[in-house]
Structures are given as C-alpha cells and as structure tokens.
Amino acid sequence: MDNNALFKFTYGLYIITSEENGTDNGCVVNTAGQITDSPNRIAVTINKNSKTHDIIKNTGVLNISVLAENADFELFRHFGFQSGYDTDKFRNFDDYKRSKNGITYITRGTNAYISARVENEIDEETHTLFIALVEDAKILSDAPPATYAYYQSSIKPKPQENKTQKTIWRCKVCGYEYVGERLPADFICPICKHPAADFEKV
Q1: Which residues contact 52 (CB under 8 A, 6 or more apart)?
Q2: What are the Cα distances from residue 126, in Å, to 42, 44, 154?
Q3: Which pTM was predicted?
Q4: Contact residues for 4 (Cβ-Cβ < 8 A; gap 6+)
Q5: Is residue 149 within 8 Å of residue 72, measured between CB atoms?
Q6: Mean per-residue pLDDT for 54-65?
Q7: Does an H or E element contain 77, and which?
Q8: What percent of the chain lies above the pLDDT cut of 70?
C-alpha cells in the first residue's frame, strides 16, 4: 500500500482553541469539517497527546480558527510545533480575541472562526473524534482558506541542502528531521505525532 496516496486528500488547516481554569491552549489540525447543516454540526479529530484534546474532553467547548493563505509559518510553528504541556502558547501572543463562549480565536492569518459545544465523542485509538454543535461563527477576512497542499507548497520553508552527508529522515507532514542511518520502525514524530511511515530519506 502506498500511504502517500492519503496526502492527495484535500484538507483545510485550522487552529483549535479551548480553555480550562483560566488556561488557554490551541493546536493546529487538518481534521475538521461540517457534517450536517440542520442541525449545524461539525467534527474535529484531535491527537490524544495534545493538551487541547484534554481541555476539550474536560470542558466540551472549543473554537475553530480557519487558517488562510496569508498565514505565516511562524503561526504554524507556534501552535503546531510545540506542546501546550511544555509552554504557554498565549504568553506574549497578542493576535487573538475572545468569542461569546469565552474561548480565544486567532485573528492573524485566519479568515473565520466557529464556536461549538461537544455533543458526542468517538475514541479512535490515538485520536478522539469530537462531534459538536455550532453555537456561533464569524467571517474575519476574505483571504482564501489555506489547504494542506498550499501549506506544503507555499508556507512551509523549503528544506536546506544536506551538506554534512549524514543520513536524514524528514517527516513529510511537518518537516521534522531525524538524523541516523536507520529510522526506527516504531519512531513517532515528536512534533506532529505521525509514525515512521510518514518519513522519507533525504
């Protein structure tokens, strides 16, 4: 089976935010979408290793900020390449407001936000699929939404040439590089949590 075929799916990119006991957190996902319009329900799938996952599981409230093509790589790095368990992602970050539900939404590099309340969840081993009822939504700009393909071609920095002649394995999802002659079969990307199958030898 060629797992690269799965990269041909068309994905949007989103920052999912939530709050618990005065602590805000957010993470980047490409697994969100509307499932019905009457009633207006969405689905969001989040990795169980994410702090945002645990906050949503505890509180049942979330916002989705829709990333746009004018988003810079720093925004992806800030919310996607570090863990909320290790850092306060909203410390010294000012590009957000709060919606009616009290949750933050991102105002830079986004074109809309959606507020929702979880009604159901499905355990998917490494992730949880949250089914949520939309409670509020607002358009923020006319910038086109950023797809996963657009992120790969136009936002994510291009890899640097390997001048050291060391063997490098690069994650095809986020760009993380592992240095070593062999990539362990059970290796998990420390950034995006994808398995060794999503790495390629540089």
Answers
A1: 16, 17, 18, 25, 26, 27, 46, 84
A2: 20, 14, 29
A3: 0.84
A4: 172
A5: no
A6: 98
A7: helix 73-80
A8: 97
pLDDT (0 to 100) of residue 76: 94
Angle at 16 between CA 13 and CA 17, to 5 degrees: 150
Q: How many CB atoms lie within 10 A of CB 23?
A: 12
Question: In terms of Cα–Cα distance, which of 150, 175, 171 is closest to 72?
Answer: 150
Tokens for 16, please give them: 């999912």
Contact predicate 101/61, CB 8 Å: yes
- In a 3-state reduction of DSSP, which class is residue 157? coil
Average pLDDT over residues 69-86: 93
CA angle 173, 121, 115 (to 5 degrees): 75
Contact 131, 122 (CB under 8 A): yes
Amino acid identity for residue 140 in this structure? L
